[in-house]
Design goal:
- This protein has 198 residues and is α/β, with parallel strands linked by helices.
- The longest helix has 27 residues.
Length: 198
Amino acid sequence: MNMMIYGRVFFLALISWMMAGCATPTPPSNEYLLMDTGLKNVQAQPSKKMAVQLMPIVVANYLAGNEIVLVTKEGEVHRSQSNLWAESLSPQLTRLTQQRLEKTLPNITWFGGQRLPSYAIALLNIEVDDFYADLEGMVHISGRWQVISATGELAASSTFDVKSELKSDGYSTMVQTLSASWFNKVIDPMAKEIALSF
């Protein structure tokens, strides 16, 4: 019940703020980047020596802009005009995911989407459907991933659907929670499956 009231109050405050923004000069925007704060503590996992190309991570179209989005249970998307990603999600997620995988699976040589070796290698494809907070104080991350072997066969695949509670209000907390959830609840389990798939 409290979460319902909190959600309604948050939603009304958000709408009031957006309407007030139409009548006043545009405030300076805050820009945010995802941060992998746990990277230095990552434990390397054993795996076979091989090469994998991480393809650019594909995000759903509604996430492709620089606005940070909130989504209601009814599917209404609210884009913040003054709280923005400093860099769009796809390149952020791709770069930081590669850094985490390089540290987690050091026996694998990781290639970025633009650096192609001269020989056939496995491909890792990641698609993100959800990457947002709702008005009830939860963040949502969902999507799927597949590893295609160097011979073109499906070596491993899975879906992910992660929900994490926000510990406090504010976009900064939302960004930190999205970051931690992505690395700890999506990428780390994925790395374990990849290590076991070859």
